[in-house]
Amino acid sequence: MSGDDGVGRELAPPFTKHGGFRLPGLKHWRLRRGLRQADLAQRTDQAQTQLSKIESGQRGCNPALAERLAEVLEVDLEDLRTKYDAEEAQETSKPVRPRITHRQVHGAYLRMLLLRAVGSAYAAMEEGELVKHCEQSLWEEVIEVVWARKREIEFLKELMEDAETTAGLPEQVRLFLDGTLEGYPDLDIRLLAAARRQERSEEGHEALTKALRELL
Known about the structure:
Layout: H1 26-32, H2 37-43, H3 48-56, H4 63-73, H5 77-80, H6 86-89, H7 102-117, H8 127-135, H9 139-160, H10 163-166, H11 171-182, H12 186-198, H13 202-215
């Protein structure tokens, strides 16, 4: 438990009726971070009405969004699933030291693994970071990024299909890796398409079009 003091606290059970997690600690930590509900919705690309229902316990939260909320609030998922009593919930002004989330740790290990095994680690980058990187790159570099990601994803798929290698893999790690694989090739198609829209040279436009066709 990475919150204030997790001793004796009770984790909310899964939202079995509709699936996903109950996050009774979401409002507690949102307030601790000084965020309005609208601010948190914007940072996680979610509708405010959806977050409101999750906070009030009217609906469950899918694992991917739960991890994203934990990342933005700089807490562990267990902190969001923790039931806080009234006294704890009122301590919204107490300073809290920022912490490294599970997702950041998973990303760091994935980056080291890919660099060692494949020689590149674009699949370990957050989508926003990768999009920004490609926006600032030449068309040749964007194509190199896409083909590097293809090699990385193929390596990860082969790794995940090895039952001996993945035996005993923690659920959070498996969810993180599954999320990485799910973004392929949709993200790569968007990267190439965005580069093609901005490219003015005939050579670059043709090369990007060819790369798109190979992915489609």
